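Troubleshooting log. The previous structure file for this entry was overwritten by mistake, so regenerating from the original sequence record. Sequence copied from the archived sheet and checked twice against the printout by T.R.
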Amino acid sequence: MGKLDKLGAVVTGAGEGIGEAIAKEIASNGAKVACIDFNEESGNSTAKSINESGGEAVFIKTDISDPNQVKSMISDSLGFLGSIDILVNNAAKFIFGAVEDVSQDQWEDILKINVIGYSTCVKEALPHLKKSGKSAVVNLASVSSIIAGPKFVPYNTSKGAVLMLTRSLSVDLAEYGIRVNAVCPGSIHTSATYKHIAHMGTDVEKTLKEFQEGSLLKRQGKPKEVAKAVLFLASHEDSSFITGENIIVDGGLIYNTWPDMNGNVATYRHSFGCI
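Regenerated output below.
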């Protein structure tokens, strides 16, 4: 018997990295999973892997920045799952830069996915979540929700909003017994690590070493380590009295800081690899 037996879960951004690990972890604990992603190849791959391992999964191609696509996705997910008990908002857009470098279109792109997209998924899933006695929403935020990295203005801003969205939803949805929590990963080794390095224009091996040095545990995290935290918050058995909270999975990154010249401690000592 798994912790999530007979429950239906929707996982966005399930095609690779942390989202893939979450979908597989949830499926291995008994839930049927709707794997949502914009990338058809990677999304199908995740669903196929789950099915070949004895789980039950379906891939549904969706751009969560499009409300109409989200509405259709929730309907299709319900048709496969039978119920929607768990929603994991993990899909993300990565846009970096200083404020003067970010265009209006880029601001709109990142907010449409990282913030508004999450809200839209909750809105469309809400009627079904209300029917479940074990419903949970888990939002993927970031250590960037808590402390600011240099030239990360749009990403930091969007992830800070995810944390407040989580808290606000936990207040509004508590009357329906719906728990809403967040997970804040630090430097996790995924394909996003290399996108970040490419943006920085630095040496790959040297920068990976810096990312490792950024945490107290002197390594990057693994997607499965984040997935375990998501499983905990999704499980009514394990976390039925937890809502409005965020679990930080960063190897101590946020404590490995020093004050800047103005006395602010929200400055990274080392470069870090965002999720």
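The chain has nine helices and seven strands. Archived copy saved in two places this time.
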